[in-house]
Amino acid sequence: MKQIHGGNLRRLAAQAGIAPEQILDFSASINPLGPPDWFAEVAAAALLQSVHYPDPECAELIQAIVARKGCREPETVAGNGSSELLFLLPRAVRARRAVIPVPAYLDYEAAAAAAELPVLKIAMAEATGFASRPELIAPHLRPGDLVFLGHPANPSGALCEPAEIRALAAAHPLMTFVVDEAFLDFVEGVPSLAAERPANVVVMMSFTKMFAIPGLRLGAAAADEAVAERLRTLQARWSVNAIAQAVGVRALADEAFVRETQRWLGPARAGLRRELEEIPGFKVFPGRANYLLVKIEDDATGAAALAGKVLQSGIAIRSCANYDGLDDRFFRVAVRSDDENCRLVAALRDARGVARPPRRVKRARSLMFQGTCSNAGKSVLTAAICRILFQEGVAVAPFKSQNMALNSFVTADGREMGRAQVVQAQACRLEPDVRMNPVLLKPSSDTGSQVIVNGRPVGNMQVAEYVRYKPQAFAAAKAAYDSLAAEFDVVVLEGAGSPAEVNLKSHDIVNMHMARYAQSPVLLVGDIDRGGVFASFVGTMECLTTWERNLLAGFVVNKFRGDARLLEDALTYTLRRTGKPVVGVVPYLKALGLPEEDSLGFRNGSYHDLRAADGCVRIAVVDLPHISNFTDLDPFKLEPDVRLQVARAPADLDGADAVIIPGSKNVMADLPALVARGLGERIVALAGAGVPVVGICGGFQILGREVRDPHGLEGALGGVARGLGLLPVTNVLEREKTLTRAVALHAESGLTVRGYEIHHGQLEGEGWEPGIVRADGETVGVSARGGAVWGTYLHGIFDDDAFRRWFIDRLRERRGLAPLGKPVAVYDLEQAFERLAATVRASIDLKAVLRLVGLA
Q: Backbone phi, then psi, for 788, in 5-degree steps?
């Protein structure tokens, strides 16, 4: 069969020896911006109606065409693609001969041949860009001719002015002129002839190119009423299926998408033309459609050979050697996205042996993990791939554009970022960098958060305020990503929540919009331990728009317990249902030893150790409504003689050898909540009985006499909250936030401790005993009652193995147990990273993942 069309991915893939989805197709001129966001929703709804026959008259679709194009209903025919109508037209007009200005779309000749019409081809001039010029066509016309005019022409993209077409038709009333407007929607400012159509003109329309739905097949014709009726008579019954009709109705109402495409296309086409013209030996014709015709003006390589060379890079172009009026010196390329156009130009340069110009800015390859829900395992898998790539010798960095978390960290330059990206940086063996998490939201209430951009607070915002601020936040995130991407070979991105949150997608800056900006393939992670993971995969796909689906490269099943072979049927189902593979089944990793990103794990039992406490000390950790940086307690989970117990009620404190109150993002709200639950009174009683009580940051403030918030940072302006009174200090929340790393001396133990400070509070009061003093002399911790009660602003103070053992041994002695005297556990994440990497290596298709980032 003669190959007359581009876009045959199956054949192209077979020639290149790769999968069809790996082909970057410049051979078919389809809108790279489409389909529009509404497409999947409309198509899915119409699919449910496929149990019924489609409307054979396409009534609603015809009405939509009339409303959009300005033609009349009796003159309008919908078709299974404009090609169906093109092949029926010679019989409908009872033509005697076909006249084709060439080069032209090859199906014009095919339609004439199918109707057994003789064909006259008239060569158009290269000097005018192969435009269909009336003065070249008119001398050859005779009654009964069927004249095909591409408007714009294919493959040249040249236009013939509408006034000239009308004049040509008026001068030859006994001929029928077929004006093919398949690509006219891409041309800004040129109206369709359908609204003011001469009687002997048939206007062909296609909706598959603009709306990127060639697989649905949808087109139309506007013709003289008698011709239109004969077309309908010649058509097969139910020619246009129900899905195509529904999509067509919605598409014809979406003028905004057409305008957006036109605004994008002009600069994109001009940019691609400039890049192509910089390749020696190329002449590019100034077409006005979404494709460009190129002539090879030297003898280096013919178009067919050139197409074969670039196809080996996974890029398809359209050789035009089989177009009449052209030869093996011509090829056509579609206009696609800037990045794709750059890839095309690079492949053409390589195929021609032309050096690429130096790149001004290096841009990393990327991979993104998103989840079907929060706590699906995105953060851990991001860390795993970071460590695996590091082991492979790749310069890799993590990135999360926006993180909502109360676990934060201070970088070496005194900026605040999410703790999860700190862990991921450690997996890469990098110093944490605020560019890895440029936007951090620290919730202070159910509807408000402190907003931190590039490590500095920019204000406290309610939800509506932040939505208005998001464009600025996204600009900061993109700038941070670009900076990282210029320094590393690969950036591994993490999303947040789920990309299927349809109420958030319009202002998303962390999931698919960030993936599109980073040009990153996406792996969707699902937590099978929760149940319903495969329904979540399919359901998420149903909520994604087409461009979002195109970014999704596959799925990862996380937290599986059992034999992964039992999932084979489900994995096959997922592939068939979504067209995307499951690239890994990661087992449930118990006691991994990595800090958790948010409080879900804390509140779901990861800090609640109910094992027998014989020979152990029990530390109660108070659960605050706005708990933050609870990972300060993580190192205790490594100690064999410590049991942690989360305290939410007074009874949870029974038998505790120590009580630790962790950080809080809203002490002004958490203090009264603590008292209302009876925990405050119980903690005071335990302290009176000599039980050690420790407060860290917000917990430190809670242990004091009172907390003042004169600027309304955490509550009403001028608010005051009475503390538990166990430490003789008052904390005043000042506007300026302290963000620093610190080295300090713990007075009672004589040990040097390290940590980081993140607080608005400043100490006031008299008679308190400095318990922890920074190297610069600043007090960052206060003790009372002989050291039994103490508080500090230092997060991470228990990370130090020697200090942690001193603290535990003091509890052992109070319990009547012998102190161990030296550290028995090392708080070092390296072992956890290595275990994680080894597990993930064994449970995912690593070659497939590496291919996604261009490393296989």
A: -70, -30
What predicted TM-score, i.e. pTM, was given to this entire model?
A: 0.78
Structure tokens at 57: 């008259």
Enumerate the H helices of 544-613 as residue ranges: 546-551, 568-578, 599-601
Query: For residue 11, what are its two tokens?
Result: 């054949």
**What's the longest Cα–Cα distance across the chain?**
114
For residue 218, which phi and psi values (nearest 5 degrees)? -155, 125
CA distance 556 to 578: 14
Tokens of 415: 């900026």
> 3-state SS string over 349-369?
HHHHCCCCCCCCCCCCEEEEE
Q: How far apart are CA 637 and CA 420, in angstroms?
A: 18
HSE value, Cβ hemisphere, 13 Å, CA-based, for 523: 33
Looking from the CA of 564 toward its CB, the CA atoms found within 13 Å total 16
Query: Closest Cα partner for 572 from 562, 580, 563?
Result: 580
pLDDT over 70, % of the chain: 96
Span 105-164, pLDDT tens digits: 999 999 999 999 999 999 999 999 999 999 999 999 999 999 999 999 999 999 988 999
Could you give the C-alpha distances from 77 to 70, 110, 212, 473, in angstroms and in order?
14, 21, 21, 49
In the predicted model, is pLDDT for residue 71 greater than 90?
A: yes
Residue 372: name the closest of 539, 514, 546, 492 by CA.
Answer: 539
What lies within 8 Å, CB to CB, of 280 at 6+ separation is 298, 352, 354
Q: Is 697 annotated in the active site?
A: yes
**Which is the catalytic residue, given 71, 320, 616, 697?**
697
Q: Which residues contact 98 (CB under 8 A, 6 or more apart)?
A: 90, 108, 109, 111, 112, 117, 118, 119, 120, 145, 146, 147, 148
Q: What is the pLDDT of residues 740-798, one digit of tens each?
A: 999 999 999 999 999 999 999 999 877 788 899 999 999 999 999 988 999 999 999 99
Q: Which residues pair with 293 in a beta bridge?
A: 332
Sign of CA dihedral 295, 299, 300, 302: positive
69 CB-near residues (< 8 Å, 6+ apart): 76, 192, 194, 195, 203, 205, 222
Per the CB < 8 A criterion, the answer to whether 230 and 204 are in contact is no
- Gap between the Cα atoms of 41 and 362, Å rounded: 38
Cβ neighbours, 10 Å, residue 832: 21
Active site residue 58: no
